[in-house]
């Protein structure tokens, strides 16, 4: 039976990425060696990093004056590196749930963290819109897509630079990079396997704070060394390049956004229509295009386990909701075909007929 991969991350990747990576595991760039066994400083691998950086810049229309890095440590290390490199005595954070909170926790090591707004009062099921940002904060940090709570937010209006965790929606929709001093994302949703972390940082924003930064945590070191200060995660970076090529071929971020909007609409329409289910995010504009979270309607709450078993038997993989929300989460990242979303909708309709 065909499996439909709705995991939140690591998650579905394009067939193209998997095929090209599998080939390179056996014979990379005609070297007769595996991509896992060549030097990161070989001309073949340097070409991989160079092309990946160029494609990130092209696909996200990154302006002059920004550096693109492939680091390790996941987005979680960026929670720390961001304030280490950019925060003076104060930084502002928009709290839209778990990932924002984890970012705030690390920033507190460096100074005052101002929580400009929070949706904790409703278990993070909406995006706060009205808030003031302190003008003397070094930056305003936000999580563009909350993977757990199924919410998304556009770059907030602020009179200070933005820092964004785009781990779960990078390359899913256009972004105005120029508003940001820093954008970071773990690779393992829309880009490649876990192990690589994408960083886009404004060069001018660096070196402004009076703090000693340990070498491995200093963006300037990684910029000077073109992501090769230490050994990069070569296989994941190779796979990321394949996804970037695939996305360019499809027409880029603008083209995939249209598909993502269509996929999400198919699923949200069914959740809103089907009497058995309800969305966990009432405001339509706050609903994520990447992680569609839903629960059983209260009067059908006891059917939760039965639906999970039914969906699993129909080939749906990874739709169990995160424990802090419950219910279900269907992640519909760039690589997910609309047929898989339709298969989930069909399953929901069949289940409705049974009840
Ligand atoms: N931010 C967001 C929005 C995430 O979804 C995740 C992981 N799923 C993280 C940060 C943490 O990423 P990592 O595991 O790469 O450290």
Task: Describe what this molecule looks like in 3D.
The protein is α/β, with parallel strands linked by helices. The protein has two domains: 15-250, 3-Layer(aba) Sandwich (Aspartate Aminotransferase, domain 2); 252-354, Aspartate Aminotransferase, domain 1 (Alpha-Beta Complex). 35% of the residues lie in helices and 17% in strands. It has a seven-stranded mixed beta sheet, sandwiched between helices. It has a three-stranded antiparallel beta sheet with strand order 11-12-14, covered by helices on one side. Helix 3 (74-86) packs across helix 4 (98-107), helix 6 crosses helix 7 and helix 7 packs parallel to helix 9. The two termini are 25 Å apart. The mean pLDDT is 98. The protein binds 4'-deoxy-4'-aminopyridoxal-5'-phosphate. 4'-deoxy-4'-aminopyridoxal-5'-phosphate (PMP) binds at residues 9, 74-76, 99, 143, 147, 165, 167-168, 186.
């Amino acid at each position: 039976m065909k499996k439909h991969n709705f995991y939140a991350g690591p998650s579905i990747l394009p067939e193209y990425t998997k095929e090209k990576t599998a080939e390179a595991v056996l014979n990379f760039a005609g070297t007769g060696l595996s991509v896992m066994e060549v030097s990161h400083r070989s001309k073949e691998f340097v070409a991989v990093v160079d092309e990946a950086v160029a494609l990130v810049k092209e696909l996200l229309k990154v302006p002059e004056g920004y550096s693109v890095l492939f680091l390790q440590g996941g987005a979680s290390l960026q929670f720390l590196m961001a304030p280490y490199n950019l925060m003076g005595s104060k930084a502002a954070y928009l709290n839209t749930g778990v990932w924002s909170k984890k970012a705030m926790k690390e920033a507190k090591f460096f100074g005052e963290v101002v929580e400009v707004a929070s949706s904790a009062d409703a278990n993070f099921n909406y995006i706060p819109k009205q808030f003031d940002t302190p003008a003397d904060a070094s930056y305003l940090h936000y999580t563009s897509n909350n993977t757990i709570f199924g919410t998304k937010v556009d770059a907030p209006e602020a009179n200070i630079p933005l820092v964004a965790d785009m781990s779960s929606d990078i390359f899913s929709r256009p972004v105005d990079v120029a508003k940001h001093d820093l954008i970071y994302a773990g690779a393992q949703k829309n880009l490649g396997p876990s192990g690589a972390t994408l960083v886009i940082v404004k060069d001018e924003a660096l070196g402004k704070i009076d703090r000693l930064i340990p070498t491995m945590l200093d963006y300037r070191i990684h910029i000077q060394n073109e992501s090769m200060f230490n050994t990069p995660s070569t296989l994941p970076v190779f796979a990321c390049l394949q996804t970037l090529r695939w996305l360019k071929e499809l027409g880029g971020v603008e083209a995939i956004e249209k598909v993502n909007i269509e996929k999400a609409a198919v699923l949200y329409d069914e959740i809103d229509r089907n009497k058995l289910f309800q969305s966990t995010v009432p405001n339509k504009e706050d609903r994520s295009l990447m992680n569609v979270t839903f629960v059983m309607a209260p009067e059908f709450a006891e059917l939760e386990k039965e639906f999970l078993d039914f969906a699993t038997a129909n080939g749906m993989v990874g739709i169990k909701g995160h424990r802090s929300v419950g219910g279900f989460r269907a992640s519909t990242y760039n690589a997910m075909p609309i047929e898989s979303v339709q298969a989930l909708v069909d399953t929901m309709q069949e289940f409705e007929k049974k009840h």
